[in-house]
Design goal:
Elements lengths: L1 E6 L3 H9 L5 E7 L3 E3 L4 H5 L9 E3 H5 L5 E5 L2 E5 L4 E4 L3 E3 L2 E4 L3 E3 L7 H4 L1 E2 L3 H19 L4 H7 L1 E5 L3 H21 L9 E5 L11 H13 L3 E3 L4 E5 L2 E4 L4 E3 L2 E4 L3 E3 L16 E2 L12 E3 L4 E2 L13 H17 L13 E4 L5 E5 L2 E4 H15 L3 H17 L22
Parallel strand pairs: 1-2, 1-9, 2-5, 9-21, 11-18, 12-13, 12-18, 13-14, 20-22
Antiparallel strand pairs: 3-4, 6-7, 7-8, 10-19, 15-16, 16-17, 23-24, 24-25
Helix pairs in contact: 1-9, 5-6
Bound molecules: flavin-adenine dinucleotide.
Flavin-adenine dinucleotide (FAD) binds next to helix 1, strand 2, helix 2, helix 7 and helix 9.
């Protein structure tokens, strides 16, 4: 039986597992985490609206449904395309075909070191770290008697006006407007500064003008200061230098401004294109090879309609995986990939969302309901769906959550990497 190794169990990897013919292929799924997660709701981890476990699901539970598929925990450290092996942190796996579905990572656009000083929501661990930072600053601000220092401690800058940045800034705005007056009586909402900066002249650049303008209105209603045509050039010693040379103090900077393909050691440089993505043909094959494929965020499939590749979103990843599995199951690369755009959405807090669906744009409560429904359907696990739903209903009426816990490292020594 042919062996397929899939690197990454995100939207693309897991949909490959679902659609590949398990009577024909023995599948090994490699992921550095032992769970699948749902990135569209990472900002809700960062804003303490949901717990990490609510939107993550163990691979081993999911794979019970799929015979002939094994899970291998490990970070991919190298590939040998000649001997057809993948080396992870813990083992070396042999394959007949390799499918890379490792997604994307933060892009700091050459500003080395930014990753060490800013916070992010690109992984579940980053989102949890950002949540801890926000709670920590709120607590520190609450006991600070110097008004100027308090305002410094409570300054949050979100960089990037795409869906992640807009959703993150909206969640912080809701905290400022509704939660701080209730749960932090020592603070006034005026002590908290939330600013979103976006390099272009438009929020939600890939969405329609109406959605973009509405998102701006919503953020302003939530007391978020939005600065368009503003770029971050440097962040050093808590001082941000903007593109026009002005410098300002910002205690916490949350970076959502860009992504690039996850680096895969051992992959020849000539296989990579724009944004460190792996160049693939219309069948998701790399360099025309039948034994090497890439799907999802990491794949760069250029076509007339998408000259810079498909958007790095869940739907292209899911659809590419299904199409590739179909070709592999039939044993011939005959079906070219054609992306069916089902639309895009973003939410800016309770009752405020925008949705560009084919043919029509929705905003406000109706868009927010659609957003909730689609996200609920997509989360893995019935228990997770029920918990998320309950949390959202609870928050809808009370804005109250028991998740604002600051869990400090303990006296017990922690391993640097799990599994070491
Ligand atoms: C904060 C945020 C919000 C988003 N919101 C939306 C949204 O609202 N709508 C939408 O459509 N899209 C959204 N996206 C984008 C969407 O999540 C991605 O497009 C989608 O996850 C891509 O799927 P993928 O399978 O290619 O990669 P991923 O889902 O990222 O999966 C990659 C997997 O590979 C694993 N991996 C990576 N490198 C290695 C390695 N070296 N070794 C082992 N394992 C590895 C990772 O652990 C991960 O499990 C959002 C993304 C983020 C970060």
């Amino acid at each position: 039986m042919e062996r397929i190794v899939i690197i990454g169990g995100g939207f693309a990897g897991l949909n490959l597992v679902k659609h590949l013919d398990k009577g024909k292929y023995r599948i090994m799924l490699v992921d550095r985490n032992n769970f699948h997660c749902f990135p569209p709701l990472f900002y809700q981890i960062a804003s303490s609206s949901l717990a990490s476990a609510n939107i993550c699901f163990p691979f081993r539970r999911e794979l019970l449904k799929h015979p002939n598929v094994t899970y291998h925990m490990g970070h991919v450290k190298g590939l040998d395309l000649e001997s057809k092996t993948v080396t992870t942190s813990y083992e070396t796996l042999e394959y007949d075909r390799l499918i890379i579905a490792a997604g994307s990572t933060n892009n700091y656009f050459g500003m080395d070191g930014l990753g060490n000083h800013t916070f992010g929501i690109k992984t579940v661990a980053e989102a949890a770290h950002t949540r801890d930072e926000i709670i920590d600053r709120l607590e520190r601000g609450s006991i600070c008697s110097d008004p100027e220092r308090r305002r410094e401690l409570l300054s949050f800058l979100v960089v990037g006006g795409g869906p992640s940045g807009v959703e993150m800034a909206g969640a912080l705005g809701e905290m400022k407007k509704y939660i701080i007056p209730k749960e932090y009586p020592e603070l006034s909402p005026d002590d908290v500064r939330i600013t979103l900066v976006e390099g272009t002249g438009k929020l939600l650049g890939a969405m329609k003008e109406k959605s973009s303008r509405k998102a701006l209105d919503y953020l302003r209603e939530l007391m978020v200061d939005v600065r368009l045509n503003t770029t971050l050039k440097e962040y050093k010693d808590k001082r941000v230098t903007f593109g026009d040379g002005t410098k300002e103090y910002w205690e916490t900077v949350i970076w959502t401004a860009g992504v690039k393909g996850e680096p895969i050691p051992g992959l020849p440089q000539e296989y990579l294109g724009r944004g460190n993505r792996i160049v693939v043909d219309a069948y998701n094959r790399v360099a025309g090879r039948d034994d090497l494929m890439a799907v999802g965020d990491i794949a760069l499939m250029q076509c007339d309609r998408y000259p810079n590749g498909h958007p790095q979103m869940a739907q292209p990843a899911i659809q590419e995986a299904a199409n590739l599995a179909r070709n592999l199951n039939e044993g011939a690369f005959t079906h070219e990939f054609v992306y069916k755009d089902k639309g895009s959405m973003a939410t800016v807090g309770k009752n405020r969302a925008v949705a560009d669906l084919p043919g029509k744009t929705y905003t406000g409560f109706i868009a927010w309901l659609m957003w909730m429904l689609i996200h609920l359907i997509s989360i893995l696990g019935m228990r997770n769906k029920a918990t998320v739903m309950l949390n959202w209903m609870w928050n809808y009426f009370s804005y109250s959550t028991s998740l604002r816990l600051l869990l400090r490292p303990t006296k017990y020594p922690l391993r640097r990497h799990w599994g070491d």
